[in-house]
Structures are given as structure tokens and as C-alpha cells.
Amino acid sequence: MRSVESFPISARVLHWLMATMILAMLFIGVFMAATVGPVYHTLVDLHRPLGIAILLLALVRLANRFLFRAPPLPDTLPPALKFAARASHVVLYALMIAQPLVGWGMLSAGAYPVTMWGGASLPPILPYDTALFATLRHLHSWLAFSLFAVVLAHLGAALLHGLVLRDDVFPSMTFRRGNGE
Amino acid sequence: MLALIRKSLTEKGGALRLAVVVAAPAAVAAAFVATAGWLSPDRLTPVTFMRDFHAVDGSHPGFRRNHAKGVCVSGWFDGSGAATPLSRAALFGKERSQVVGRFALAGGAPNQPDAPGKVRSMALRLMPTNGAEWRMGINDIPVFLVRNAADFSDFTLATAPVPGTGQPDPARIGAFLDKHPETKNALGLLKARALTSGFANDTYNSLDAFLFVNAEGGATPVRWTMVPEQTVEPPAAGEGGQDYLFDDLLKALAQGQLRWRLMVTVGEPGDPTADPTAAWPEQRRKVDAGTLTLTKAESEDGGPCTGITFDPLILPEGVAPSDDPIPAARSAVYSRSFTLRSDETKPPSEITPAAVRSGGQ
């Protein structure tokens, strides 16, 4: 079997950890915004610290991303799609960082406590301003829908590479025997 | 690349693999749409409740969707220390927390006339120095009228005015009450409650059950009541006027402080926590957790209570939700109301800055 150039193990671990968290977060968010059931409170209490965890991991991941050279995209990919692949990753990083910040900022502007776990809470990052709260609350929804759309495109593209094109793109992000460093 | 896809399709299982590429994201998208409730128009959401309030009281942009007519107050809360064995929340210790509050009438009409029998509410934001704040909205009725969000929605719609008469349809209310003896009973208790002359000498109840959690992690079900130190008097004969309840409150605060004692009712095993229509036995232990002192009134226009939501699930460490389903529903619905009104232009409130300046004269 020919060798495949993989992402470093740190990048792969961060990728799959965050993929799980972000997908969970999108479903939690869209459900809690559309329920009045008893689970609402539990989900909101989970949503805040999970969002902050995603923000921290995204920053670690962004820093980590500058420490290695990503495996090159296969030459079989047309330039337009290579551009789309790179651009979609920039958008993914931007949304992973912006979405938790908008959530945090929105609670700050609405004078909500930004409660984490065990009674700890974060300070506000924006001034108290209810019009700003409303704007950020709407933006939070639209960024969520955008992030979900990009995640779906990412998933579709990954499956196309892995199942149909069967090039080196999909295995560069998976865990297989012998693709350590 | 298209050539690669075409080549793949000619291989064994190629079509199936391409189908997975399309179907997997489509399945995730479908799950997302279902989770968001876009396929279930009958699901109860915060938007449902906005529609319910609209059906009863019409459209009032900029105002709270319920308890729309109100006035801001402020002062402080002095913890007595007596509730510390029950809850580790800092504000129950012997310390002072700043308070922003709001008195209001139940209902979505911001200009409704005051009347002795209308439900009055007190909303509070307690801000201890450690930042672990506590918000609540409490009412001068003995029990809540319904057990859960679905019943609240149905009951609200049953009381909506019918086109033509402009009055609720008694048959519709009757049909709801036949199905809900707990609401019938709660309405009986509500009608039998002793009315007082105003906001200042009224008693306000949490109605919902919460858990107090102490330093050892022990949880105790509780409900609580704000008991006035002002002399309780029945409504004065012939009292009335569009804003007489609010004017009396402004007069009282112009003359001096108003005080309430926070009496915590300690639940015992078997006391219903999940059913806010069911009263707890009268002989339950009561703990005097501290004193609320209000010193100042302000109009909603420019006042500190307008741009916040009195979300009953903004709780300090040491106070937690119970299995009572109503606070979660209120939290979700208040959040929606807060977002909508924060985006709208609000006409002046009924209780104007000028009315507050004149001390309710």
C-alpha cells in the first residue's frame, strides 16, 4: 500500500474532537431555540460552556495550523475546487471562532450572566446594550445556519474524496495503522 | 475530476458509493430540520407563546409580551444568614445585595386600567457582590393556574377574546376547566385570596418549586414568599382610576422605604414539586432568609428594569431548578420576548417619568 501524507496526529485529534462538539452544538442550539420543555434549561447550561470550549480549542487549532504544512491537495482536483476547498476551510475557522464570541457577546449585551460550570462565570466582553443584544441574537442564528451549511459541504466533499475519488484527501485526516508521523 | 467520478461509477458498487456521498449530508440536514421543529408546526415553541399572548392582548411592540404594564424599582436585599444551612448562595449570608426590580400587572396590555382583583407581580434581580445573581418573577396569587407549558398555551387561547363580542368564549373556558380540575381549583383559590389595597402591602409567591443546595451538596425543595412589613389593608372602597395601584406605589416610595421579608418554605418528602397548581401544607417550616428594602421608583422609560429579562432560571450557585416544568418554559419564552422587544421601538410606558417625579400625584 502506498504511503499517504497525513495531517499530524494533533491536527487529526483536534479535528475529530471538534467535529463531534460542533455538530452536537448545532443540534443543541437549534433544538433549545425551539422548545419550552424541561430540557431547555439543561441544554442552555450545556450550550454555554461547550461553546467556550469550542472557542478555546479553535484557537489552539488555529495556532497549531501554523506549525505544519497541510498535505497538498491532489493534482486531479481542478483549480476552482482547490480554491473552494481552501476558502471553505478559512470560513470554517472563522465561524468556529466567531460563533462562540457572538454568543458570549450577545449574553454580555443582554446583561445575562455568562455562567460556566460549578458556579464560575465569565466577564462580559461587550457593553450592556439591548439593541446590540437583539442584533447579535439574530446573527447567532444566521452564523449557526452558515456553519451548518459549510459543515454539510465539508462532509459531502470528504465523502466524495473517500468513497468516489479515493484520493489521499480522506485518509490524511483519519486514524489508520501506520500513519503516525 | 469528473472523469474520475465517471470511472468510479463504472466500477462495482460505484453508484452506491456516490449515493452515500449525497445521502449522508442529506440525512444530517433532514435531522437538523426536524430538530429545529420546522417539520412540526404543532410543537410548542417560544413563538407559539408569542402568538398566544398576541391572540389575547394584541400587538404592543417594544413591551414585554406578558406583565406589560409596570414600573421599575430599586433597593437592596440583606441576607439574614438563616437560609445558609439550606443554600450556599452568597446572598443568603449576612451581606447586602443590590436589587433592581419591577412591579407589574399580569397580562399583555401595557395600558390596561388598574383594578383590585388583577394579578400583581414583583420581579427582582438580586446582585450580590460575588456576581452570582438571582432573578425571579413572583405573583400575588396562591398557586399557579396550570401544570405545564402546553396547558398554559391552551388556557391562554381559551381566554382570548372572540371576534364579534370582544369577550372570551365561556364555553371554551368551561371546556378547558372540565378537562383540568386543577385549574378550576386554582382559579377558586385565586378568587378567594385576600386582596390588599396596593402593591406595597401585597404578598408575592414563587409558585414554582426550586432546590436550595447547601455547602455539603444537600438539596432541599423550596418555595418562597415575599411578605410585606407594610400594614396589610383591604382595598379601599370606591378606589379606582386608570393607574391607582401604581400611583399609590409611587406615593409610598416618595414617602419612604418599603420592606418585605423573604420567607422560604421548606418542602418535605411527598410535597409536590412538579405541580405548581398544588399548594404545600400550611404547617411547613418557614425560614426568614432576609429583608428586601425598596427605596426608589423609576419609569420603565429610562429605568433600569426595562432592558433586562427577569428570567426565573438565572439562579446563583446554591439555587437550582426542580422538576417543576414551568420555570424552563418561562425562561425560554422570556428570552424570545426579550429578543423581540429589544429590536422594536417602544412607545412611552403608561407610568411615565413625569408620573414618577410627581410621586404619583
From TrEMBL, chain A:
Subcellular location: Cell membrane
Gene3D superfamilies with a match to the protein in the record: Transmembrane di-heme cytochromes, Chain C
Domain Cytochrome b561 bacterial/Ni-hydrogenase span(s) in chain numbering: 7-174
Alphabetized GO MF terms: electron transfer activity; heme binding; metal ion binding
Cofactor: heme b
Annotated membrane topology: Multi-pass membrane protein
Keyword Heme: yes
Protein's UniProt keywords contain Heme: yes
Listed GO CC annotations: plasma membrane
Residues that span the membrane, as ranges: 12-34, 46-63, 90-112, 142-165
SUPFAM superfamilies, A to Z: Transmembrane di-heme cytochromes
Record protein name field: Cytochrome b
TrEMBL record, chain B:
Gene3D superfamilies: 1.20.1280.120, Catalase core domain (2.40.180.10)
InterPro entries given in the database record: Catalase, Catalase_core, Catalase_sf, Catalase_SrpA-type_pred
Keyword field contains Glycosyltransferase: no
CDD domains, A to Z: srpA_like (cd08153)
PANTHER family: CATALASE
Region (Disordered) residue spans: 337-361
This protein's name: Catalase-related peroxidase
GO terms, biological process: hydrogen peroxide catabolic process; response to hydrogen peroxide
Family: Belongs to the catalase family.
Highest taxon above the source species: Bacteria
Organism the protein comes from: Acetobacter nitrogenifigens DSM 23921 = NBRC 105050
